[in-house]
Amino acid sequence: MKLSLSCRIAELSNDKEKSFLSIEKLIKMAVINGFTGISLRPSVVSTSTPKQSVLKIKDVFNLNKISVSMITSNINLAKNDKYAANNLKNITPCLDLAEQLDTSVVRIMIKHHDDIIFAKKALDEALERGIVLTQQTHWGTLAETIDETLTLIKVIKRKNFGITYEPANLLACGSDHSLMGLEKLLPYIVNFYFQNICLDKNGSHEFKTLGKGNVKVKYLPLNDKKGIDIYPLINFLYKQKYDKWFTIHQPLREGQKVDEAIEEASNLFLAYKN
What we know:
single chain; alpha/beta; TIM Barrel; eight-stranded parallel sheet; three-stranded antiparallel sheet; 10 helices; 37% helix
């Protein structure tokens, strides 16, 4: 299992456009704490970033001998707003960015049934370039539940269509986020995203689900079992010899510093591995 850190760890939970740490510092802290990959987001780099700047970022990755585990290529995608699926109609800039950063995993959003035909065309183009497009289990998409995700996989019918498994979103959408759900999707998972939440009617964050309406949640420490008990899931992945990415995707909690968040992530997963 390859351990990755999302740039989300340097963002506030309610702000996906700003990183509180430069990518240079984030990479160095990730390496020090034992991570071998970074999942890049538009708070750091996107399809709007000039190519010269992108290549400078790639040089920093090369210098520190760390990989780009996945890219989320634009802010609409990161916010999952009404324009999040638009890049499916022109996936080329996303694939160009992936190649410049030497990654083969690009995140997409399939929000409506009308998006499927564009997703198939995008996947065909990506396949020619050796790139996987991955749909996250996520509120407001056609992958809110385990069953919906399995149906989507069958409809897409593309070998380079992968799943980014994210149990927090499954929890918010009222789906099985336990070991059974993970086992069903395991053959298709290219990245495991983890952030820890619990349902809380007084929570300050809202997930706009299709199946359950607006659901309020609260972010918790990564090892807090009041939310998602992650240890059985990690144990299962190790037993299954899962060899893809496992990414910490937790935003900063109120009052938390970036170095504290990275240390928390490191303690949870690297200590478990040891």
